Amino acid sequence: MSTAPQPAAGAPQASIAKLALVILLGGVIVQLDSTMTNVAINQFILDFHSTISTIQWVGTGYLLAMTLAIPATGWAMERFGPRTLWTATVLVFLVGSVLAGFAWSAESLIIFRILQGLGGGMIVPIAQAVLAQAAGPDRLGRLMAIIAVPAMLAPVLGPVLGGWLITDVSWRWIFFINVPICLLTIGLAWRYMSGEKAVVNGRLSRLDWMGLALLSPACAAVVYGLARAGNKGTFGEGGVIAFLIAGVVLLVGFVLHALRDDEPLLDLRLFRARSFAASASVVFLSGIVLFGAIILLPLYYQQVAGLTPLRAGLLLAPQGLGMAIALIIAGRLSDKIGPRPIVLVGIALAAAGALVFTQVGADTSRLLLSVALAVSGAGLGAATVPVLVGAYRGLRQEQIPRATTAIRIFQQLGGAFAGAVLAVVLQHASASAATAGRGGRPDPAALADAYGQTFWWVLGFAAVALLPALLLPGGPPEKRTPPQTPAAEEAPVAS
Fold first, then answer.
1. String of b and e for 266-289 (b: at least 16 CB within 10 Å)?
2. In Gene Ontology terms, what is one molecular function of this protein (predicted)?
3. Distance CA 200, CA 145 (A)
4. What's the structural domain count of the chain?
5. E strand or H helix at 132, and its extent?
6. pLDDT tens figures, 97-134
7. pLDDT at position 4 over 50
């Protein structure tokens, strides 16, 4: 039997707000770093006299390192306590950021980005689990919205901030800017985050070494195979097939191992709960809906409309605004009426926005696209928080860290799958546009049509995501009265 830190669930609003600030800062550094780095790819190529095939590992190495780190997060939270693990992971991310800022070659930058990823991979799931444990069932939706804010706003703010730093300061500052935020969140964590460790059967949690040796490489192989498919523009390339098969074989091996182990790295029994299984499915499928606008629209604005990356990033602002408004409303509503109706409406709104994008042309009104982005963003914002609420509904406190690990793995795999599918579809759809133009340039109308065809895939996956969403809980959480103790009445979040 496992016991996890309990007092935080009865923490007062003031303590929760301070804890939320720690978590928000941690999420910001991870999410903004990824989007700002994407903007700097061309600058890396120029400064290091490198090639796109080499520099792409700045992003791929970071992604793979994050993927390798995620599976151990649940166990590490139980073994070392949230505060110690948070401090360690943010410190690793901080050191990686400083070293990346001083990188002298493409190879050194790639190595330091991998170090960043090893720390960054655990930051978001720790934040998600800590806040879920502290919130309790009655205010879970409102507080889970905090987790979603960095992920929703980073695609909008990252390119703008990154573009400004690269243009007017130096690309090195997209890494150095992390330093003060990391130091602040570490200091606040030691004041407001719990340091209590979980006890399993009278002892500290043991590490499932075999599970880790199977699951981490499995996730990394699948993510790399999907990333390679996106770069190659096909799922039929030999390397893509090899990595995907290796990943699937390792995943099957992990499942067989986990079903026999008493303390598996990832508790597969969680998927017996209909709400958790449905939430994991929606998280995976909604990745392609989210990435549709984040990946395709900036490319459309640059390749078809001829805008700069900075202007393309600014035109994504309506999506961020729609998300921000919906996050606030959806978080509160999910605590009152349950996740299912909100997620269904959210997916429907996201699909409505995608339907407009299927009709894009070379001269489509930017006002129309902005309205569609706002609608799509509102839908994604509305769906994101209730899905997380649904995942935690009915779970015991001690189950939350490993449940969070599972959900985060599905998010990571869903994002990689989305990027690969969209890249492959767009490359095939735009092949004819490359030969239809004059002077060696793609024909804008044909290229716009290729983007429209790709958005039909986004729309299709949105429709499929509605099916598991129907299985989410449809009512408010059961009222629970936490035990009142002197410690709970004072309710300090830190221990």
1. bbeebeebebbebbbbbbbbbbbb
2. transmembrane transporter activity
3. 31
4. 2
5. helix 106-135
6. 999 999 998 889 999 999 999 898 888 888 888 877 77
7. no
The sheet with strand 2-3 has its strands ordered as 2-3, 199-200, 203-204
**If DSSP codes are grouped into helix, strand and coil, which group holds residue 193?**
coil
Model confidence at 93, pLDDT cuts 50, 70, 90, reads: very high
Q: Give the H/E segment covering residue 203.
A: strand 203-204
Inside any domain, residue 80? yes
Query: Phi, psi at residue 97, to the nearest 5°?
Result: -65, -45
Amino acid at residue number 58: V
Q: Are 154 and 5 in contact (CB under 8 A)?
A: no
If you ran DSSP here, which 8-state letter would residue 272 be given?
Answer: G
User: Model's pTM, two decimal places?
Assistant: 0.78
Looking from the CA of 65 toward its CB, the CA atoms found within 13 Å total: 24
Closest CA to 295 of 241, 357, 224, 383: 357
* SS3 state of residue 3: strand
Single-letter amino acid, residue 289: V
Distances (CA, A) of 331 to 8, 335, 337: 20, 7, 11
Q: State yes or no: pLDDT of 483 exceeds 50.
A: no
Q: What six digits make up the tokens of 239? A: 């390397």
Portion of the chain with pLDDT greater than 90, in percent:
10
* Cβ-Cβ contacts under 8 Å for 336 (sequence gap 6 or more): 476
Same domain, 24 and 124: yes
- Point out the domain boundary residue: 161, 193, 225: 193
Asked if residues 90 and 123 have their Cβ atoms less than 8 Å apart, the reply is yes
Q: Which residues pair with 443 in a beta bridge?
A: none
pLDDT, tens digit (0-9, with 9 covering 90-100), for 291-348: 677 777 877 887 788 777 667 777 877 887 888 788 878 877 877 888 888 989 998 9
Same-domain status, 186 and 277: no
Give the model's pLDDT for residue 161.
Answer: 82
Q: Half-sphere exposure of 464 toward its Cβ, with a 13 Å CA cutoff?
A: 14
